[in-house]
UniProtKB/TrEMBL annotation:
Cell compartment(s), UniProt: Membrane
Primary subcellular site in the record, as a coarse category: membrane
Organism: Aquarana catesbeiana
GO terms for biological process, alphabetical: cell adhesion
Membrane topology: Single-pass membrane protein
Keywords assigned by UniProt, alphabetized: Cell adhesion, Lectin, Membrane, Signal, Transmembrane, Transmembrane helix
Protein name: Ig-like domain-containing protein
Transmembrane region(s): 270-293
One Gene Ontology term, aspect cellular component: plasma membrane
Gene3D superfamilies the record matches: Immunoglobulins (2.60.40.10)
Amino acid sequence: MLLMRCGFLHQHFITIVLLSTFCKDSNTQFGPKLPGFTINAPTRVTVQRNLCVHIPCTFQVPSFFTLSRNAQGSWLKGDHSQQNVVARKDGLDDPQDKYPRFFLTGEVWKGDCSLRISDAKSEDDSLYTFKLEDRGVKFSFTDVSPKVTVTDLTDTPEISTIGTLVAGERVTLTCTSPGRCAGEAPKITWEGATVRKAMVHQYTIYNGDGTRTYHSNLTFSPSIKDNLVRLLCRVTFTDNLTSKSEIVELEVEDAPPKPTTVCSSMDSKFIAGIIVGNIIILLLAGLGLLFFIKRHMKNAGNRPHESKPQGNESAYQDLHGQSIHTYEKITMK
């Protein structure tokens, strides 16, 4: 067991020594090319001035060599006779704040050497070479050195589509700066007669890939006088280079007419008439019922009394009749 472990360590040590020997001079274009070290990256990349570009990149190492988590990666700018480091990542937790516009986005120990360039300048137009360092091994991948070409800025800001506006109804227009970058935010301004009475709000959206997009909102309530008014937005970058949007011409129409007061008053009068009519009907119905009750009671009082043949009441009626008859006789005499 001890012999096997010693043999493995001896083989690993020889591998490191060989890699160190063959790779120590490989950061020149004409250095030896070792089998197993390969890189995949675009040979040419174009970016507009003041915008950003992402260069995808992956690399492989020989199967007998395993990258550690502390593997370091660097991007060098310039031809192979004179190169300067523009991006460097030392292990996992390196903030990479030494080179603010260049950022090695990939995890080196996983074989990812992707590079992002923000706020591209004219001097960024050059060749770029990736260099690997890990446990004494240094190797520059000279097989592919991406050529970055910086062109003039042609992209322009975009204003959101709005369609026809309605007078008096609030609306928000959005101007979006060109590009998806991670550098300093540009200044976005609006131009046009409507801007005087509008609210302007500039903000940044952070994307999931580490880039940002810059926006500005223009919020206002148009009037009919704003019809055919022209608007545009202008983006000014940190080097005072500006880019302006296409001109947008507002279309504003009058708000639809509201229901007139006459119609409202007619409706209220109609409802009031219905209520008064119902009250009159109820009063008439009440008077009719009262008249019916009085008439019924009067008719009931004029009817003859019915005799009741039973009991004390019958005897009382006989006596009462006799007394009246006797009284009549006495009076006649």
